[in-house]
């Protein structure tokens, strides 16, 4: 698994509060569920939104955060 992602690191450095990241699918952002959860938690703390177009998830809304957490819990359950 390739963990060196210079473009992702560069994007994370320039993000500001109020920015919204649009991605095609959640699995294109995180290399693992743990990595994805860490990044989305960091985005939320920094006031940065995330919208996954294909997954129909928008963590800038309460409903989107709820759905994201359900999907994350199901994925974690599948790993055990």
Question: What is the CATH C-level name?
Answer: Alpha Beta
Distance between the termini: 20 Å
Strand fraction equals 5-15%
Summed up, the domain count is 1
Integer average pLDDT: 88
Series of H and E elements? HEHEEH
Radius of gyration from the CA trace? 12 Å
Question: Structural class, judged by helices and strands?
Answer: alpha+beta
Q: Please tell me the CATH architecture by its name.
A: 3-Layer(aba) Sandwich
Protein name: Resolvase-like protein
Domain Resolvase/invertase-type recombinase catalytic: 1-80
InterPro entries: Resolv_N, Resolvase-like_N_sf, SSR_resolvase
GO molecular function: DNA binding; DNA strand exchange activity
How does this structure look, described?
The chain is an alpha+beta fold. It has a single domain (15-79), classed as 3-Layer(aba) Sandwich (Rossmann fold). 51% of the residues lie in helices and 12% in strands. Strands 1-2-3 form a 3-stranded mixed beta sheet, with helices on one face. The model has no long low-confidence stretch (mean pLDDT 88). This is Resolvase-like protein. InterPro entries: Resolv_N, Resolvase-like_N_sf, SSR_resolvase. Pfam families: Resolvase (PF00239). One of its GO terms (molecular function) is DNA strand exchange activity. Residues 1-80 form the Resolvase/invertase-type recombinase catalytic domain.
